[in-house]
Amino acid sequence: MIVAGIDMGALTTKAVVLKDGEVIGQSIITASEEGEVQARRTLEEAIKQSGITPNDIQYIVVTGEGRKSVSFANKEKTTPTAISKGANKLFPSARMVIDVGGESSTVIRMTEKGGVEDSMSNDKCASGTGVFLETMAKLMQISLEEFARLSLQAQKKAEISNTCAIFAESEVVSHVHRDPPTPKNDVIAGIHASIASRIGGFVRRLGIKEDVVLSGGVAKNAGFARVMEEELGVRILIPQEPQLVAALGAARIAQEEMARKKTS
Amino acid sequence: MIVAGVDIGSRGSKTVIMQDGRMLSYSICETGPESAKSAYLTMNEALKGTVLSLTDIEYVVGTGYGRVLIPFANENISEISCHAKGANWFLPSVRTILDMGGQDCKAINVDEKGRVTRFIMNDKCAGGTGRFLEVMADVLQVPLQEIGPMALQSRENIPFNTICAVFAKSEALSLLKKGTHESDILAGLYSAIATRCHNLLKRISIDSEFTITGGIAKNTGMVKTLEDKLGMKALLAEDPQIAGAVGAALFAAERLAAKQKQGVAS
């Protein structure tokens, strides 16, 4: 049984192809085109890797913010549902997922089977999202890769009291221009802490439940992951490909749908 | 009795000099990185309009975000109280004030004496603040003074579903690329901000005697959009940006009068 999951994120689109429950193809492409075209390209890329043809795919589930623009999928699922299913596959012990994407952050409390118990998300503003981080990296003229590395070397976290990116920008500027200037490492750790505190608020409102998984593009930033762990005071599990969790979950849902069809 | 009010806002520093309840002079300067310097700058600017020097001013009340850092202030009072008092001086009938400043937005109810009865503010997010408009003017490459009138020329209101400055910036950029006119983008942004302000105002009481203060009150496009959204006309002070400084000067006069009375009594 071959199925696929597509995740239409704000900044990237992702696809995962599953054959009998195992990943045989995957892709991540920066969003640059209109939704439908973008979705096709991403899926084709994943298919290329898997050595199958498009006709072999029996069922497609699409998720993510831009899911409505994809007409060729068999079904669409909300982002928290897909993320939970994906995280559950990677870490069966997971009961909470923190997903930090390009333009949103979502915290999900889940059941042991990977169902959504409760969730909270912010997609109205840049605070606590990947774009926040990008804005700060651009301001400091440091690459995102460097950001992660430098944050891990911080002695302490610079105080950044605003979670609004615009206000935080001024705070960062004043840290950099202070006499003596706040060390870069500490400023970056402070920036990470601003995101972590915004997300920490969601986690506490939902009630923390271990194990906690961190997914989404920002999960690749080890500096942020450490600060997030400090904020919550728990260990955080990070998938190898944190960006693909929702697409994987969507593919798993596709598989379940197929199985249900067969039995009925 | 000569007094002054100094309002060190996040973006603008304002001074009002008053003599016996009459405004002698005022100034508006940009707030620099050091509040103390900005305070001297705006005070000296205001003094230029008079024959006075700083030593002639008998009492100074500071207000605004940088109020604790004014070296020559005798005392400082919160900007909420000062805005209410200042708005009441300009427009005694006003009961609802929307103050749109550089980095925050406040909704205030005042009584007939200019005392605050209710207030609510947003200072957590740049959406709908002067800073937001600066970011947008920069993206659109339109001088800040022109973004007000420009929006009035809009023929098509482009809906923005966010007023996060970061998101709105990227949305505006992609609209520009598609050839959307700047005036339509601005009109869309103002409409989103107006909705946000309306929601803020709904949490206090909205009275028909309503005014807008702060720097944004000088943006004709924004004021018009707000009036349309609220379905009522805004009464505007002669210079809405100095309402806080006027209020501070009025407090200074009260304090000085009380002191002098005490002096006579003792």
Structure in words:
- The complex is a heterodimer of chains A (about 260) and B (about 270).
- With about 260 residues, chain A is an alpha/beta fold.
- Chain A contains 8 helices and 10 strands.
- In chain A, α4 (about 145-150) crosses α6 (about 185-205) and α6 packs across α7.
- The longest helix of chain A has 23 residues, at about 185-205.
- The model of chain A has no long low-confidence stretch (mean pLDDT about 95).
- In chain B, α3 packs parallel to α5 (about 165-175).
- In chain B, β6 (about 95-100) and β7 form a beta hairpin.
- Chain B has 8 helices and 9 strands.
- With about 270 residues, chain B is α/β, with parallel strands linked by helices.
- The interface of A and B includes residues 103, 131, 132, 166 and 177 of A.
Q: What would the CATH topology of the largest domain in chain A be?
A: Nucleotidyltransferase, domain 5
Number of strands of chain A: 10
CATH secondary-structure class of the largest domain in chain B: Alpha Beta
The pLDDT mean of chain A sits at 94
Percent helix of chain A: 40-55%
Task: Determine the CATH superfamily of the largest domain in chain B.
Answer: ATPase, nucleotide binding domain
Can you count the helices of chain B? 8
CATH architecture of the largest domain in chain B: 2-Layer Sandwich
Low-confidence stretches of chain B: none
* Largest sheet report of chain B: 5 strands, mixed
Detail the poorly predicted runs of chain A: none
CATH topology of the largest domain in chain B: Nucleotidyltransferase, domain 5
What summary fits the major beta sheet of chain A? 5 strands, mixed
CATH class of the largest domain in chain A: Alpha Beta
- Which outline of chain A best applies? elongated
Mean pLDDT of chain B: 94
**Given the structure, what is the number of helices of chain A?**
8
Rg from alpha-carbon coordinates of chain A: 19 Å
Strand arrangement across the biggest beta sheet of chain A: 3-2-1-4-5
End-to-end separation of chain A in angstroms reads 16 Å
